[in-house]
Amino acid sequence: xxxxxxxxxxxxxxxxxxxxxxxxxxxxxxxxxxxxxxxxxxxxxxxxxxxxxxxxxxxxxxxxxxxxxxxxxxxxxxxxxxxxxxxxxxxxxxxxxxxxxxxxxxxxxxxxxxxxxxxxxxxxxxxxxxxxxxxxxxxxxxxxxxxxxxxxxxxxxxxxxxxxxxxxxxxxxxxxxxxxxxxxxxxxxxxxxxxxxxxxxxxxxxxxxxxxxxxxxxxxxxxxxxxxxxxxxxxxxxxxxxxxxxxxxxxxxxxxxxxxxxxxxxxxxxxxxxxxxxxxxxxxxxxxxxxxxxxxxxxxxxxxxxxxxxxxxxxxxxxxxxxxxxxxxxxxxxxxxxxxxxxxxxxxxxxxxxxxxxxxxxxxxxxxxxxxxxxxxxxxxxxxxxxxxxxxxxxxxxxxxxxxxxxxxxxxxxxxxxxxxxxxxxxxxxxxxxxxxxxxxxxxxxxxxxxxxxxxxxxxxxxxxxxxxxxxxxxxxxxxxxxxxxxxxxxxxxxxxxxxxxxxxxxxxxxxxxxxxxxxxxxxxxxxxxxxxxxxxxxxxxxxxxxxxxxxxxxxxxxxxxxxxxxxxxxxxxxxxxxxxxxxxxxxxxxxxxxxxxxxxxxxxxxxxxxxxxxxxxxxxxxxxxxxxxxxxxxxxxxxxxxxxxxxxxxxxxxxxxxxxxxxxxxxxxxxxxxxxxxxxxxxxxxxxxxxxxxxxxxxxxxxxxxxxxxxxxxxxxxxxxxxxxxxxxxxxxxxxxxxxxxxxxxxxxxxxxxxxxxxxxxxxxxxxxxxxxxxxxxxxxxxxxxxxxxxxxxxxxx
Length: 799
Prior knowledge:
The protein is 34% helix and 24% strand. It is of the alpha+beta class. Among the domains are: 77-156, Gyrase A, domain 2 (2-Layer Sandwich), CATH 3.30.1360.40; 191-296, Topoisomerase, domain 3, CATH 1.10.268.10; 334-424 and 434-632, Neuraminidase (6 Propeller); 716-762 and 769-799. The strands form 9 sheets. Strands 1, 2, 3, 8 and 11 form a 5-stranded mixed sheet that branches. It is extended. Residues 633-683 and 703-799 have low confidence and may be disordered.
């Protein structure tokens, strides 16, 4: 079968590096580099299989590579997608090697027509230049696992691929193992490099011999020209040159063939440089042929160059287990997600895009923990009582904002137990979970256990043994070489290596991490790896800051620590802390069941002894309880809750009846333009106002004379319209007339323009059946009878 070029090059380089002990190299050593066949069409290959004779689990790939003959199972790559109304569909994205897509679709359709496969409602090919995509839609009652199992059994979506490593060796067919095939290839390459080096050496020596003759001619140029000129024929010149300078026939012929332009000074210099290069090449090739080990070095460098230029990523996935029945996990599409736990004990998975928009997708939920994982991973939930709960990630909804699921509905978690941390342990190529899980309690104990021990937890189990009254405050994953920072409520903190805490069993209670006072307690612990990391700290009363990790000295475990923040009556004790890089969005949780987004950059970077500054304005009796970092901050910062609730508190206690004046005052916005126009009119020069009055009087006289010359009907219509326009503002003109006689009792204020607008225009609520007057009619009415009592009305309204 075909293999990956990069993996084969790595295996060959490994054999060259161990050439002396090449006989001791085993097939398993080579399988560290060559994982298995790599088909151009992708697919899935199962490395292990069940022996039909004995029923034991055998390594199908290793046995085939060991003897050069065998077989293994290869499958198409498919996953299940959810559709609307509870329906599913199977998406096939990769096929086994040498399987024709059109024949596969025809085969599936034939099986559905014959009734051998049930539950398929539609079948179509959506392949394009982006890749292969065959869509198999299922009925609402169909089980995707049963349908996919039937497809693997009855169609070419699953096939058995035979391995037969037969090759001609010295003209004879031989069955070769993987090691023997690679060894013969290296021997072939040694032969090729040796022959190539000998050929290049002979060619370089011949060229150097010719250049030596040309250099002799250039050194005696005048004499060479004289000999050639005195010779009758070319053969005579050739013989004379050989006799005079003791040259070979090849050298003498090269001198005669030299063009005149080669006699220039620059050309002579090029000949000398070429001769020096040929001498170096000759010395290198002679040394290479004299030392066979150096030939292997040449082969090694050529393999590395070949891999760098032509190698590409593996396409076929190797499953490190035997073929088995399909599970729901196998049918789930692989997708990187971010899992978030809320303060209400609910979970939700978000697509693992840049977490800039994560804060905007939380809705009303307040996050308390998050972890990155994949839909095919297992999620570990750590709670405050030291218990751990495991569940598949694919059970969590991904998508809709309302798609939150209660953790108590997925496992036996008590609804009253708060969630402390989430994590998705990763496995290596052999399936072992990597890293460690570290837990820190409120009373200062720390425990580290191997991630592989978590595998024994089925559903739920104990992670740490707690004393009475103690609880877990922090839990996180480490790689075994990180440092841990622990912070206490009284403003002390300690930093030490995680290696000072030995791994323990599941039921162990841990060791002391930090010395605490009688009234002190641990508030947070976190792993740090980057030296440029920072620690964000918040106090119970909303004071916060950041401190640089470089200002935090490392110590031994179980020390008193150093000051990380000054605790006073104004700040209150420390409430929470988290490691940041400076660009994260933090979510602060308070005792009032509120969540406040806060940019990490808004926390000032201060010294350890500083108390910080007020970054949150909390309500009465509201205290900070926790904090979680959601990732990179958004380009548009989230709203901060630093403003005082100046207007928010008053309206909440006001009865509903008191809100009516605020709604009635909404039309007051139209009063400002009217007042501005009147003020502008008063600021005009007297001459301009007199000219405008004369023009208005002339226009009115012209209109009256034209009205008398027209028929009665149009006049009546105009009169009716004018009467209608005049009757509308009548109620508004009467009010100022009554107020005109009253003296002003208060100075005129700017907000007093609102009554003026209400006096100048009728309210829609008073006459709902009448249309509002047009602006042009209102202007004509204002010109005919200006309201001079408005200032008085404004003063009264101001009162």
